[in-house]
Write a structure and sequence with these properties.
Layout lengths: L7 E4 L8 E5 L4 E4 L7 H12 L6 E3 L5 H4 L2 H7 L3 E5 L3 H6 L21 E3 L4 E4 L2 E7 L8 E5 L4 E5 L20 H13 L4 E4 L8 H17 L2 H19 L1 E3 H10 L1 H10 L5 H13 L5 E4 L2 E4 L9
Parallel strand pairs: 3-4, 4-5, 5-6, 10-11
Antiparallel strand pairs: 1-2, 2-3, 7-8, 8-9, 9-10, 12-14, 13-14
Length: 312
């Protein structure tokens, strides 16, 4: 019941990287999502170990947040692989507009990559001798996609559904609709016959109905007070950055807040600008409480250990 199809292998990654899904048949070897830039060599090593002398033929990105496409450039430099991205992101990638691609907005990095084709909802991909339907999954990201194999009843859900939740609803930080789209995506998943979901973060799981119940409940909680989504977004982005750099001063964190549009938008929903230092201090203290992901040493904020994105 919980078994992956024979042609599918999942590299479960902790933060900072998304999971990587390797799908192989006699015709091609494809990788769905490539992790974060600082983990790119690890991603390449995992793929090389799995494929041996065989090349990687195709990269498929469910969406272009940095933890899902940060390995693209290195993999493209290693193998002459084709790359498919969401169609609505094509212009931003072609122009390498880092603001539109969210890298600058979140204080994250991604090495420039290229693409050879695009994907849109309604398309079908043949991967691992299986047909995968491309489904739209806006909410967490307006451009996000999922892949569904009806024959195997397997869903690659990216950040639209985890076993315990889903990704930050970023559009709502900019005053755009995201909660309604996330609701629709969850309803789309509920209408599918799914025996196994492969999330963007965390292990594949079979208890999809229970996961959906938790996701619907969490979404209702966020919609009841949008400040909750903003607060969660700030905490997620702080932890992500600390896990990347391992330590930073509180002053550096405040500069990051000034420079990262998504963080500024979230902070603006919570407090007036003059109160941002106190807000960030309070959030850091929350993250350092108990066995939290951060510790505070004077003016230095230090990452305690790796955490799972699915624990957001």
């Amino acid at each position: 019941m919980n078994a992956l199809p024979a042609s599918v292998r999942v590299f479960e990654r902790g933060w900072l990287s998304s999971n990587n899904v390797l799908i192989v048949d006699d015709r091609s070897a494809a990788l769905v999502d490539t992790g974060y830039a600082t983990h790119a060599h690890q991603t390449r090593a995992l793929v090389q170990q799995a494929l041996g002398a065989r090349p990687l033929d195709l990269i498929v990105n469910t969406h272009l947040h940095s933890d899902h496409c940060g390995g693209n450039a290195l993999l493209q430099a290693t193998w002459p692989c084709r790359t498919l991205i969401p169609a609505s992101e094509a212009e931003a990638v072609r122009d390498w507009d880092e603001a539109r691609l969210t890298f600058r907005a979140t204080g994250q990095t991604c090495e420039r990559f290229t693409f050879t084709g695009t994907l849109a909802p309604g398309a079908t991909l043949r991967l691992g001798a299986l047909d995968w339907q491309v489904l739209g999954a806006p909410g967490h990201d307006p451009h996000s996609l999922m892949l569904y194999c009806a024959a195997e009843r397997v869903l690659i859900s990216a950040d639209a559904l985890w076993e315990n939740g889903f990704g930050v609803i970023f559009p709502e930080l900019e005053g755009e609709s995201g909660f309604a789209e996330q609701q629709a995506v969850l309803e789309t998943i509920a209408a599918l016959d799914v025996r196994l979901a492969i999330p963007g973060h965390g292990a594949p799981f079979a208890n999809v109905e229970e996961a959906l119940q938790r996701a619907f409940s969490r979404l209702a909680w966020l919609r009841a007070d949008p400040a909750r989504n903003a607060r969660n977004a700030l905490k997620v982005l702080i932890v992500f950055k600390l896990l990347e750099v391992r330590a930073m001063s509180f002053a550096t964190l405040l500069r990051m807040l000034d420079n990262a549009m998504a963080m500024r938008a979230a902070a603006s929903m919570l407090k007036p600008r003059g109160e941002w230092p106190a807000l960030m201090k309070a959030l850091v203290e929350e993250l350092a409480a108990g066995n939290g992901p951060l510790t505070v040493d004077g003016e230095q904020i230090v990452a305690r250990a790796t955490v799972h994105a699915s624990e957001q």
